[in-house]
Amino acid sequence: MVGQVGSLRTHPPAGLERQKWTLAATQWLKANPSDDQWTLLFADALPHLAEPVPLDPEDSPGFLLWHLTLRWQREIAAALTPLGLTHVQFVLLAAAWWLNSRGEDPNQLSVARQAGTDVKMTSEVLRKLEAKGLIVRTVDAADTRARRIRVTERGGELAMAAVTAVEGVDTAFFRAVPDPAALLAMLRTLAQGGG
User: In this structure, are residues 158 and 85 in contact, taking their beta carbons and an 8 Å threshold?
Assistant: First the structure.
């Protein structure tokens, strides 16, 4: 470690490694102000580490994911526009349709959970889907504050057509991925909050 810290002055790491070393050195100096040997080594190296490091956006997973998501959303929106659905309308209609197809009459909260959407926004969008005649919302007999969601025949037909359109976009969009199973496994891990 002493050799590593001492060489930082002449060979500072780049990019994320530099940021990690800077953070570690700063935290160590604050926690151990009386350890003279390490303090001198870190204090000597720290100015070389603290120089601003331009991070190339092309090396940032978050930046790339942002651009990828925007492109994917544009393509999904283009596929759904002829069907008269926005992306969020599609997601909520498809979630309700999927739950109905498994014998459930979900309430709005269940649809929101299935779709991963905000409950208040889900309620607003479901009202729009109801106005279009794609779903029926009925008062839950067990809880009069809740609404049960049932996709209409017309809504079911539209849901199937929309799922087909979206799956077509997905197939084309992810065609360049060499291992689709590995991509799905990675996406599942990230979606579940794993790292």
Answer: yes
pTM of the predicted model, to two decimals?
A: 0.70
Q: Of the candidates 85, 126, 86, which has an alpha carbon nearest to the alpha carbon of residue 106?
A: 126
Other beta carbons less than 10 A from residue 101's beta carbon: 12
Structure tokens, 63: 């930046």
How confident is the model over 33-54, as pLDDT tens digits? 555 555 555 555 555 555 555 5
How many residues does this entry show for the chain?
195
User: How many alpha carbons lie under 13 Å from residue 139 in its C-beta half-sphere?
Assistant: 4
Residue ranges and CATH numbers for the domains of the chain are 2-49 (no CATH), 59-191 (1.10.10.10)
Burial bucket for residue 132 (CB in 10 Å: 0-12, 13-18, 19+): middle
Tell me the Cα Rg of the chain: 26
Q: Residue 71 has which token pair?
A: 């492109």
Q: Indicate the pLDDT class of residue 11, thresholds 50, 70 and 90.
A: low
Exposure pattern of 15-37 as b/e (b: 16+ CB <10 Å)?
eeebeebbeebeebeeeeeeeee
